[in-house]
Amino acid sequence: MGTLVTLDLPAGSPVADLPWVITIGSLGDDDWEPIVCGPYERAHALALAQAVVADEDLMAVVEPLLPRPDAEAIRDEIELARAAEEAPAGEPAADDDFETRRVRPGRAPTEAEVRAGWARIAARLSG
Q1: Where is this region: Disordered (predicted)?
Q2: Tens of pLDDT along 103-121?
Q3: What is the percent of the chain where pLDDT is above 90?
Q4: CA end-to-end span of the chain, whole Å?
Q5: Is the pTM of this model over 0.85?
C-alpha cells in the first residue's frame, strides 16, 4: 500500500482553486527518478494519486502549483517560504506538524474529465 501526502486545506481555501501536480516516487529501495504529472484540478489530482499508489509501494505528493507571472513574484514566494522556515522558537515548523489519515481510493477521473479540468485551469490562468 502506497502513501499519499498533501495539504490539509480549510474549507473555502483559495489554494484549492490553483492547479495541482502529483509527484510520484518509490517508497522502497528502487532507484528511479520521481515523476511529476499535471496540472490537474485538486480533486482530480487527489483521485489520480490515490488510484496510482493504492496497491503499489509508491509515494505520491499532491501539491498546488503557484503560477507567478515574473521573476520578482517568484522571489517574493521564496522570501515567504524562507520566513516561514525561520519561525520563532517554540512554534513547530511546518514539517513537524502533520497528520496521517487512511483514505479509501475513490474512482479516478476519466480522460474526458481530466481534459475538461485542463480547460477550466487554462481559462482561470488566462482570465
Answers
A1: 82-109
A2: 666 789 999 999 999 999 9
A3: 60
A4: 40
A5: no
